[in-house]
Design a protein that fits this description.
Elements lengths: L1 H21 L2 E5 L5 E4 L7 E3 L3 H4 L23 E6 L4 E4 L5 E8 L7 E6 L2 E2 L8 E4 L5 E10 L5 E4 L3 E6 L5
Parallel strand pairs: 5-12
Antiparallel strand pairs: 1-2, 1-3, 4-6, 6-9, 7-8, 7-10, 10-11, 10-12
């Protein structure tokens, strides 16, 4: 029995290093800019080239001077586009209701907020959605603009100024 255990242990000790060196490791930057590692390929990942010696870690003293472990600044150029109402649109609503919608690209991140400016003034307060419902807007020409605010409260993108015209019936 002891002889069988020794043989199995010997086989496992010979096979495990071979399996460890045959595993591929993939490296990429995650959404926060930090290095991420996996044994499965990801979009944008590169296969890390390892030698047999680099796959074996003899102690906890690891030289990381060769790794680029500084977080990279994400180079997302955000864009805010007001899709409703269209520029120079004429809106007819006796209650003065206007629905405003926008798209944000590349991706609306958690923690981001949207500000809406109506005629150069902040309309109500920041919100987490790109849809606004304005009520009791006076007749005449109005301009709107949206600003995308990041988690730190900094404006990272703004839409173009959009002009619309509100028509309301006058009751005599």
């Amino acid at each position: 029995m002891l002889k069988c255990f020794v043989i199995i242990s010997l086989v496992i000790s010979l096979v495990c290093p071979a399996l460890a060196t045959s595993t591929k490791i993939y490296v990429w930057r995650n959404t926060t800019g930090l290095l991420a590692f996996s044994d499965r390929p990801h979009i944008g990942a590169e296969e890390a080239k390892l030698t047999r010696d680099s796959a074996v870690i003899p102690s906890m003293n690891i030289n990381t001077s060769l790794l680029d472990i500084k977080p990279k600044e994400l180079e997302n150029e955000y864009e805010v586009v007001i899709t409703q109402p269209k520029n120079s649109a004429t809106l007819r609503d006796n209650n003065g209701t206007v629905y405003i919608n926008a798209t944000i690209s590349p991706l609306f991140q958690p923690g981001f907020k949207i500000e809406l400016y109506l005629d150069g003034k902040l309309y109500k307060r920041q919100q987490h959605r790109t849809i606004f419902s304005l009520e009791n807007i006076d007749r005449g020409e109005h301009q709107i603009k949206m600003a995308l605010i990041n988690k730190e409260g900094k404006v990272i993108a703004s839409s173009q100024l959009t002009t619309f015209y509100m028509h309301r019936t006058i009751a005599n």
